[in-house]
Amino acid sequence: MKLGIGARITAIFGLAALLLSLLMGGLSYFTTRHFLLAGRETAAQQQAFTNASLVRSALESGDTQYVGLLAQIDAGTGAHSVLYHRSQAYASSLSVASSIPAGLRKTVLRGRAATQTYRTAAGTAEIAVGVPVPVVHASYLEVFDLSDLDHTLSVLALTLLVAGVVTTILGIAFGRFAASRSLRPLADVSRAAGAIAGGELDTRLDADAADPDLEGLTLSFNAMVDQLQERIEREARFNSDVSHELRSPLTTLAASLEVLEADREKLPPRSQRALLLLADDLHRFQRMVADLLEMSRADAGSVDVFLEEVNVGELVERSVETGLGHMDGKGNGAAPPVLVDPGVRTWRVGADKRRFERVMVNLMENAANYGGGVTEIGVGPGAGEWVEVTVDDAGPGIEAAERTKVFERFYRGSAAGRRGTGTGTGLGLALVAEHMRVMRGSARVESSPEGGARIVLSLPVLDDDDAGLE
Hints:
- This protein has 470 residues and is an alpha+beta fold.
- The protein folds into three domains: 5-152, Beta-Lactamase (2-Layer Sandwich), CATH 3.30.450; 212-300, Signal transduction histidine kinase, dimerisation/phosphotransfer (DHp) domain (Helix Hairpins, Orthogonal Bundle), CATH 1.10.287; 308-460, 2-Layer Sandwich (Heat Shock Protein 90).
- The protein is built from ten helices and twelve strands.
- Helix 1 (5-60) packs antiparallel against helix 5.
- The radius of gyration is 48 Å and the shape is rod-shaped.
């Protein structure tokens, strides 16, 4: 799984905090352990050499009460002593005598002083200091318990471990905070880009509040959007101007065509066929110019939307009736069935009646031109608080790769080779998508159960609290 930038920054901070905690904790623990242990070894050696002097003095005076002597030395010290004299061993504690490492014992018996820290079989930490006393042919060993130091080091290790965990958690938290702060400018850019993609071309980044290191990015982004807005507005003005300029000659052509159609019967058959083709193309051209004007107004943001609260079932049925009146003889002449789900009969939506009627006319004409006509229109519930209007046709359907492209302007795809009447402008579905967008809805393409194409219109359902429709 690929991590995002924020997650990577957070992971780096957390890993750095963990490594720093391990380094500092380990350094602190082993340094403290070294100095504490060295101090205890020094103290133990001083005490052992002092007690060895007492043993030498006692043996020189002829005192042979070895056990009593060792008990007297160990009294109040917490240590235990072992004395080797004339090949005999005497100890204040048999268990301590048996726990002394053999190597240490051999070294001391050979006449060399030695110190060793070790753990017994029971896990107790001890220091043994061996001092040879050659004057009286003896060797003295003293064993000191390090349980208190061992406990202190255990507490220190636990404390450092907890501190390391806390430091790591704080590092992760700080990394998360730093990542969010560092990525905030990019989040602003993302929101601005999303708003621009949604049609809000006046969206800009605040150059005054921009991070100094990202000032260049902010200025470049705003300059890019300025150029984009200018280009879109220029293209919209161009389309609008071209459409307006075409209306005058089209009006003249339409008037001339009416004159010719009035005398159609006087024309020879070949001229009548040419006049019929001219009339069809002129009507198609007029429709295209009207659609282009509609699209240019939408691009310029000057559309007038009048949303009314209407019953969705009645809206669809009335729009279908209106669409049949605009079909101009296309289709099979029969009204397609309108099936309204009983569960949505009382549902109300906010819609512009004129625009929704235009949507249904375009869909019915599109089905007549490319899909063999509308077979069924349905109204039912959608996901969440949405209602869906479905329009099925009898055609071969639309390929999955084309289902988003069919809403592009002048796109026909594979349908271009099977046009029926030839009166389509290539803007019908693009206008459907635009009309649904301004009515806060959407349009998409699916496959109908019978194999044809299904256009799905989605509109949000109004509840009792919805008001202020524009």
